[in-house]
Amino acid sequence: MNIVLASKSPRRKELLSLLDLDFQIITADIDETMDSSLPVTDEVARISYEKALAVANNIDGNSVIISADTIVELDGKLMGKPKEESDAEQMLKSLSGNTHNVHTAVTVLQGDKHKTRVVTTAVTFRDISDEEITAYIETREPMDKAGAYGIQGRASKFVSSIVGDYFNVVGLPLCSLSQMLKDFDINI
After folding, report:
1. Which terminal CB of the chain, N or C, has fewer other CB atoms within 10 Å?
2. Residues 20, 29, 69, 165: which is the catalytic one?
3. How far is residue 161's CA from residue 155's CA, in Å, rounded to a whole number?
4. What is the pLDDT of residues 21-71, one digit of tens each?
5. Domains of the chain: residue spans and CATH
């Protein structure tokens, strides 16, 4: 069975590799703009599904496609990937000393069958000084990550607690995904 990861994220590739699956990567080029008037979980699910569908339209119909999308939410405000350093600084200052939610939608699609599940993890940051924020931004690590941080990287020192799936925060909720794959006759 051909398995495709519809993502250019090196973190998702690394995480999916932990499940010992043979897969290829085909990226989806879609508009990932979210409608802020709609529930965030609905929107992240829609983006994940659209990524899978975009890839499905260009490959063999028997392939199993896995896609995901991650967004950070603080007090109802969505935080995607920062466009510039000032965005990253603003996001990190907002997250400092607060608890936020990380929502990752994962989709599995094969032919006309698909499942999408949204997993939410609560992450609490300790208070972060301006100097720490500046030093972190200088590493360039926050620039391609939702909420301007990677829990698996240098930002791990900012995290005082998490409630939920750690891998969800990294970008691919492996527990949920492995359960979803059973419905497609893929046992992990």
Report:
1. N
2. 69
3. 12
4. 999 999 988 988 888 888 999 999 999 999 999 999 888 778 999 999 999
5. 3-182 (3.90.950.10)
